[in-house]
Design brief:
The complex is a heterodimer of chains A (449) and B (121).
Chain A: H1 11-15, E1 22-28, E2 39-44, E3 55-60, E4 72-73, E5 89-93, E6 100-104, E7 113-118, H2 120-127, E8 130-138, E9 141-148, E10 157-161, E11 167-170, E12 184-187, E13 192-195, H3 201-204, H4 211-214, E14 221-226, E15 231-237, E16 245-250, E17 259-263, E18 268-274, E19 280-287, E20 307-309, E21 315-320, E22 325-330, E23 338-344, E24 354-355, E25 358-359, E26 367-369, E27 375-379, H5 384-390, H6 394-397, E28 400-406, E29 413-422, E30 432-437
Chain B: E1 3-8, E2 14-19, H1 24-29, E3 48-53, E4 56-57, H2 66-70, E5 73-75, E6 80-81, E7 85-88
Parallel strand pairs in B: 1-7
Antiparallel strand pairs in B: 1-2, 3-5, 3-7, 4-6
Chain lengths: 449, 121
């Protein structure tokens, strides 16, 4: 198909795209004790470049205390037919400050520049929202999930921005009986959106009090939305199998109804799909057992905080942040995943305390896969206050980005020995990297209409 | 205007005069004290400091659990000085702010105020 909008005509076309040469990751100083702004780091991932495996640019935010976390584009393949749109701006919400930073990555991809800041106080005043998380474009416009109202209380809602990044207002018509917000993904051909649940900002921002799970301060449900009507139509109570359901991803194939969610505390993968009768169903397909620890009176849960589906919909990648392993599952049959790869990096179990010469203070946390499915970049910090609880040494050692070589033909993953970015050695002191995006698209940035 | 004296123990006992009705974060930052902060409404503990003498009003904070309160932590973005006070600030004061929740559970009376139950005698 001839076109000149952003992205790719289909997932199959995206897989054939040129290899990524740069990636962007956020890095934080919020909560680290270093009084500097969080920043967007440009990492050189071109193996033919003299600065391969290094941070080559740092765009500081205007102030301190944002806690940058996740990011999203102003446009993706959902605008492939629209020649007036371009994947030019990356949106960087500050979870704590409520500011949304709009960054121009196209004028000079190696040195992104700040285009606009949507003031957190303005968002509170106009939309009664705080605690921004997931950014998705929506054709030419943008919606962002917020986990709280202006006072930091659940369930929050969705901020709607127009393509000039002006506040339109709230996107949703109703939150129904939803108790909490977090991540969301939509599949337009089925007019469906799925959202998940972390907790209220006032609950998760200060850190993790395990007892609050029992007091129902953390989520355990998935929500299915009528995407056009902008209201929830069905909630799935996951119970003990789905404590703290975080990331949600549909298959990239826009005709598919299959999707996946990682329940972080239960350390399970939940699979959903629409059955032949047109009814949405769910099941638990992966259950990572807690592991014994020499110094702990109770076994350690994996804490599966993220998941990702390869562009060909064949592999599912998950992390166990406290255990320290990344896993690859073949999900050709999404009801019956098969473990095909595993790599250890950091974690509390002592399996891989040093990776490529760098001492790890953290475990596999966020990850981003290349469009061809061969390179998985993994970072180690979760969220400043939670890092400080579980991996206090991260204050001195900082976060790390590693690369895992993945074999999409036969399955399997191996740690790449030539790539490591040690954010412990940043010029202003140890920072912590989290989510990453590639300028030309990756495996969490595009939705097809 | 009622003022209070804030002594910062881990900055060489430097002292500052602050308006009693103003949040300590704003009042101290205006006088050049480099303090961390995040949400600025009492919900996130990024600006937590430890109170070692005196009294503050921090009724607006919703981030600290009762153990953190008992250990002297105060949320500077909403706390106001009721008396002259002494603080330890910054990350050096955070040694008892963070704990591994699996290894060191909270008692029912140590939870956040909205869900805590009174201590049994």
């Amino acid at each position: 198909m001839e076109c000149c909008g952003p992205g790719y005509a289909s997932p199959a076309e995206a897989i054939k795209a040129p290899r990524e040469k740069l990636l962007y990751t956020i890095a934080i100083y919020t909560g680290t004790g270093i009084q500097k702004p969080d920043y967007l780091a440009t990492v050189d991932v071109d193996p033919d470049s003299p600065t391969y495996s290094q941070v080559i640019h740092r765009l500081e935010m205007p102030g301190i205390g944002d806690e940058l976390h996740h990011m999203g584009w102003n446009a993706c393949s959902s605008c492939f037919d629209d020649s007036s749109m371009a994947r030019k701006y990356l949106l960087l919400p500050g979870v704590r400050s409520n500011n949304i930073h709009v960054v121009d990555t196209a004028t000079d991809p190696r040195a992104p520049r700040l285009h606009k800041v949507i003031d957190g106080a303005e968002i509170k005043a106009k939309a009664d929202l705080s605690g921004p998380h997931t950014v998705h474009c929506l054709g030419s416009e943008i919606i962002i999930s917020f986990l709280g109202d202006a006072k930091g209380e659940a369930p929050g809602g969705y901020l709607h921005l127009n393509k000039d990044f002006d506040i339109v207002g709230r996107w949703e018509n109703s939150m129904g009986d939803i108790k909490f917000g977090y991540d969301f993904w939509y599949q337009p051909r089925h007019n469906i959106m799925v959202s998940s649940e972390w907790a209220a900002p006032n609950t998760f921002m200060p850190g993790f009090d395990l007892e609050e799970v029992g007091h129902l301060k953390y989520g355990r449900e998935l929500h299915f939305w009528d995407f056009e009507k902008r209201e929830p139509i069905q909630s799935m109570y996951l119970g003990e199998d789905g404590l703290i359901p975080l990331e949600v991803k549909f298959h990239h194939d826009p005709d598919s109804t299959h999707g996946f969610c990682c329940a972080a505390l239960s350390t399970n993968v939940i699979h959903w799909w629409k059955d032949e009768a047109g009814k949405w169903q769910w099941e638990k397909i992966i259950d990572v057992a807690n592991e014994p620890h020499p110094d702990w009176p109770i076994p350690v849960p994996g804490v599966m905080s993220a998941l990702l589906v390869s562009m060909d919909d064949r592999y599912l990648y998950i992390n166990n942040w406290l255990h320290g392993d990344m896993r690859q599952y073949d999900i050709s049959d999404p009801h019956n995943p098969k473990l095909t790869g595993q790599v250890w990096m950091g974690g509390l179990l002592g399996r891989a305390p040093v990776v490529n010469g760098v001492e790890m203070a953290g475990g596999p946390q966020m990850f981003q896969l290349s469009l061809d499915g061969r390179r998985l970049y993994v970072t180690t910090s979760l969220f400043s206050t939670w890092d400080n609880q579980f991996y206090p040494a991260i204050r001195e050692k900082g976060g790390v980005m590693v690369m895992i070589d993945c074999d999409p033909e036969n399955g399997g993953m191996t740690l790449n020995p030539d790539f490591i970015v040690d954010f412990g050695k940043e010029p202003n002191g140890p920072s912590r990297c989290h989510e990453a995006r590639y300028p030309g698209g990756d495996c969490t940035s595009d939705i097809w209409l | 205007m009622t003022t209070r004296t804030v002594t910062i123990a881990n900055r060489g006992n430097a002292t500052y005069q602050v308006e009693a009705r103003r949040p300590l974060l704003d009042a101290l930052r205006e006088q050049g004290v480099d303090l961390p902060y995040g949400c600025k409404y009492g919900g996130c503990i990024t600006c937590a400091a430890r109170l070692t003498a005196g009294e503050v009003d921090q009724r607006r904070q919703v981030a600290l659990n009762n153990r953190q309160v008992a250990n002297g932590y105060v949320i500077l973005c909403v706390a106001r000085a009721v008396t002259d006070i002494t603080l330890e600030i910054g990350v050096e004061s955070h040694d008892r702010l963070y704990r591994n929740p699996f290894l060191d559970p909270l008692e029912p009376h140590e939870l956040k105020a909205d869900i805590a139950t009174p201590k049994e005698r």
